[in-house]
């Protein structure tokens, strides 16, 4: 991981063990670095799995592998490679994923289709099969690690490890959820996200797990953006071992099902914000709340237009209440908007109302708000009931420095 | 204008006088600066006009004024204010535009609807009517100026004045076209552009002029982007005085009509590239050529996805042949694409073909190409006959510096 930690970083929390889930890490040395870069997690027999992956038209072979394996709904292992995304590598990339699944299945005595694989790093270089196999063998031989080590090992340009936990009461028992995630740049998940992994001891059918993950994703991973650039490798997988012993959650409606879905959504929201807080070069976390749009979908597109505007993001980096750039970003979104009904606030202060600057508004609280690390921009369209909230970060010299010389 | 000139700047060319067109400039002092900021151009009676304006849903009152006045097809004057865009200023902004048109009409003895008004600068501050009227009166009293002075006066964050000229043979006579343009940031014209003005002595009906301008715009202004941020004020107007005395060009097809349309398209292409060359912080001019897409429209959207990708633009700023980011940008465009048919070149060198890196390609010419100021990226989708070419610039520390403290 990078040596300069994001000013928005939060401490890694204490994460509990999840019964049936055992993480390990090893050095595959996909790059010339002295750190673990292969994560291998074993999962108890009977583990359910659900996932969402990138909608990119140029997905990595790992994404294609997971998409196919998800149709079966069961999992025994997760393998994550850092430093090489293996994307855009043709038949050689596909062969690498197949080799990893085969080697893992051999060790565990399971089907290759029970092995989920994700990779992150440079695009266009086939993952070296020999290094992957040696790394897997080392991981099998290694002592299990804690979540922090796993979270560190899946990172690339990340500046701090990211994990979260929550619980829910299901069927009279406490079930526990843990998630780890990586991501810092190339973040504009399109119905999916960076590499994120959720583990729970709840007993859940694959169908219910997928439905709950889809719902959580809609308001969390799909509502964050760092740079508007959607990765070829975005993957979120959720694994449920069933070790908590609750009556399995399935299609039937129950309080436990609601509690589990709410807990999963809460966990995903925590993980998504951790990624934005590590946005490349970020110094401010920005929440964009759009109300009064013609529909929720329209509100989301307007919010994303603001969140991806380089001019809005640089203004906030400069602590400048340049709400004219917010107007610009609303106008270019291509969604219904009427200038003379538009209102804008920074923090709690209305700066424009119904198409006009608010005369003589107090600039002091606005300036104070913009000097903080957590910025709120509110936009009301005055047209209907559509709402959406998205999160992004500012655009700074740090982003340029990181990305003008990352590959080489 | 800014004191640090873009490294991609080209010298201001010698521009001829256009019979029937007389430019003047004056100091309205819309900002606290010591420079001319009001441009006033008189046009001979019988001048035809055509225009394209922003598709922003939050357009400036100037844009709304021009859109309405364009329906009449005739013009007697153009007034351009720099330093204040007058956008998002409600009824006070509308009143300012009406006052400018009325004062100008009074001076010229014409209809207010014959006066075209454009403004550029900060959003959200009503244009002060007293300064505008005093500036107009001063401009009327002033000696006419040359094109260079006019081009300098319409600029804001521009680092150099921008103008171009060309000619066409129409009806046995040489007609001359001159254009001036401003723009540097907030450049992603949506079927229109920054402020651009074209003047010709050709005799042309408003209908033909509009059709020729629409066609030119499609392949020029609508194919450039600096930051993906579409302005509230984008306006291109073309004025034809008829002083060349050719038989007026109208709906009938003729060699002269073709020659004029081609000359107009050439002029618009020159002007559009001048804007990209002055992109905020730009150090490289980038041409993105997409071929083999399912349609021209699809090719255009893919090319724009690449041209607006912060990761592609920072890689080129860093002279890094990181074609994996080009793959990413193709994948996120939402257009038909098949990873295993995709080919990519930098300059003349193929770096990826049919979904794989070209093994052992010669990196020397690629590195040399990327060290230059004019970069070509070619992408072939391998699917159909759709083509598109767009132009952008790199994303550098300069962009951040300019935009993190522009307003205040």
TrEMBL record, chains A, B:
**Gene3D superfamilies linked:** ArgJ beta chain, C-terminal domain (3.10.20.340), L-amino peptidase D-ALA esterase/amidase (3.60.70.12)
Q: Which residues bind substrate?
A: 156, 182, 193, 280, 403, 408
Catalytic center residues: 193 (nucleophile)
> Might you name a Gene Ontology BP term for this protein?
L-arginine biosynthetic process
What pathway, per the record? Answer: Amino-acid biosynthesis; L-arginine biosynthesis; L-ornithine and N-acetyl-L-glutamate from L-glutamate and N(2)-acetyl-L-ornithine (cyclic): step 1/1; Amino-acid biosynthesis; L-arginine biosynthesis; N(2)-acetyl-L-ornithine from L-glutamate: step 1/4
Reactions this protein catalyses: N(2)-acetyl-L-ornithine + L-glutamate = N-acetyl-L-glutamate + L-ornithine; L-glutamate + acetyl-CoA = N-acetyl-L-glutamate + CoA + H(+)
Q: Site Cleavage: list residues.
A: 192-193
Residues the record marks as site: Involved in the stabilization of negative charge on the oxyanion by the formation of the oxyanion hole: 120-121
Q: What is its EC number?
A: 2.3.1.35, 2.3.1.1
On whether Repeat is a keyword of this UniProt record, the answer is no
A Pfam family for this UniProt protein?
Answer: ArgJ
What assembly does the database describe for this protein? Heterotetramer of two alpha and two beta chains.
Family per similarity comment: Belongs to the ArgJ family.
Q: What does this protein do?
A: Catalyzes two activities which are involved in the cyclic version of arginine biosynthesis: the synthesis of N-acetylglutamate from glutamate and acetyl-CoA as the acetyl donor, and of ornithine by transacetylation between N(2)-acetylornithine and glutamate.
What name has this protein been given in UniProt? Arginine biosynthesis bifunctional protein ArgJ
